[in-house]
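Deviations from the work plan: none for this task. Representative record:
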Amino acid sequence: MEHQHNAKNPNKSMTAEEMNMTSEEHAKMMGGEHSKSHNHNQPVDNSEIVKWKRKLILTWIFTIPIALFMLFEKIFGKMIFGDLTSWIILAIGFPVIFVFGFETIKGGLRGFVTFYFNMDSLISLGTIIAYISGFLNFFGIVQDYSGIAAMIMSFYITGKYFEVKARGRASQEIIKLLHLGAKNARVLRNKQEIEIPIEEIKIGDIMIIKPGEKIPTDGIVIKGESAVDESMITGESIPNEKKIGNNVIGATINQDGILYVKATKIGKDTFLAHIIELVEEAQGTKVPIQKLADKITSIFIPTVLIISILTLIAWYIITKDFSKSLGITISVLVIACPCALGLATPTALMVGSGMGAKKGILIRKGEAIQTMKEIKIIVFDKTGTITKGKPEVTNIFSEVKENYLLEVAASLEKLSEHPVARAIVNKALEFKIKKYKSVEKFKILRGKGVEGYIGKKKIVIGNELLINERKISIKGFEDKIHKFEEEGKTTMIVSENDKVIGVIAVADALKEDSIEAIQLLNLSGYRTVMITGDNEKTAKSIAKQVGIKEVIANVLPEDKVKKIEELQMQGMVSFVGDGVNDAPALKQSNVGIAMGTGTDIAIESGDIVLTNGSLKGVVSAINLSKETFKKIKQNLFWAFAYNVIAIPIAIAGFLSPVIAEIAMATSSISVVTNANLLRNKRI
Amino acid sequence: MKKIKLTVEGMHCASCASNIERALKKVAGIKSVCVAILLNKVIIEAENNIDINEITKAISKVGYKVVKIE
């Protein structure tokens, strides 16, 4: 305690000193940092929006006069500049289509060469046919659609501008995440503080982080003490106290003290880099419901091209009016929109996973979103998921001296990595036991305990299962053992030469919000199940405390998968566990939810990863998945409905080409906007 | 098996995504293609000895440009 106090003091005073002495400088620095971080807080790629905005303005400057000329003709029945008008429209329309629309036309026409069509192919063909009709008109072949061509392109560009803007909004959280990292770091090199770009940090560098600054990269605190705001990574709004020996995450913000941090991970290995990789990859994953849409998109354009040719032929045969037939064909070409179909899923997924990432919920696979609504059973691993996963020795009951018991137990347990073993070793340290006995023929019996020889004495330490297996009598200890178990404690029975010498009870405290989270899930009608290697009594006691009715106890780690398979016969199962030990169970379940363990995330397991350890994240993840999936369904419905309704109307000749183009632009904007509405949902 | 992440310019609609998928699936050695259209990213799983040039060529042939390879 005293030691800690001393260690804390110099730093605190240093912070204060710094603040007093150089308050001006400090303010400047903070300001500098602020403007810097402001820069990366404005990361949505604006260049695309700016580009379309410029096109939008230019194109309308040219198109508005054309629209006025056409209006004049409609009202007064004659052309404003007489025969010259057609030439003027062709001249003004040229830059609209071939300069401002260059990118669109070029990309679109390439499709006709490579047979890899995109939606620009339809627009390009429609506008070019319409524009050429202006020349053909001079020979009296067909009505002049060149003014219409300019208007189609202008509305297309307008629609594109709004769509790009809405798409920018849809991806803002994720783009923010991509730019979250610090740009510079202050490191100690040759006893001097120097500022270097983040890329130049090496593992082992000592970084100095002042209040208000971003921690440049993952590391371990070697000096100082401070609260660190980790909300951008874990969604946890309460700052985390960090002191010597604690891990800190790059891109989180140091709040009030100076921290000296030794860099432990850099570049691609950092926590943030892992999160980014995970989120980015998720965007490309498929949601099963989208399959049909994908299939349609892939044959959409050739199909529409064929339909438009058939429309032209059919209308010409019926009406013998080539002008009218051509107008209708142009409408069909521009109204068909694979875009809305294609954007329906990715935009909703993007908004949903962005919202999740902000709260520490990382959706790894789009499929999970769809499966989530089918989930009936949620299985929780006990240790580290419902409980904190840091067991402590609470009771010791023995016939020999406590010191002796602990010495024997710790000598064996220090060779094991198990959390319960660690709890026993920690207790031994508390008892100031320093010398351990040397152990021979040591063996770990997974899920049961440990055994070995100290000198000639055979020591077996383990649960009742193991002790029974070895036919060691627990007479005289039953009452104590059962009492501990009923309290939800794990009991380790220590035996020497096949005779029990004592019992050590270990308890693992519940996480603060486990009870609330389980209650919410129970209320929503989920069947909640706890699975653990603990014996029935201990497990039941914990389950009762947390509100879970069903317990599967005495499960060896390798049997978890089997138990989940059994449950899957009764309904879709989601498994919640830590990503390290439970990877097979996470994979086996229909939706695996991996709980983060502080500074490490198990990337490869889990369809959804929670970066903060709270079980409430499970509730949020379920809500988020359901809401996102709802949006995907809505979007797909509207995109399908739009094409199914709009194309026949255009074929029937009820839509002028300009109205058709406006309808098309509106359809893709509405899909993206609808996805953005997901943000209004509370998760 | 290795993972290749590309940033591709010029994808602006769903047809573009399916064009790239189609084009890349024809390249030998590519196991899976994932297009994250809103991020302009294409994530490829391919055999270790794959020729990156083959990939960029396939993409540029259908009209898009690879601007970054990770």
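The first strand of chain A starts at residue 184 and ends at 189.
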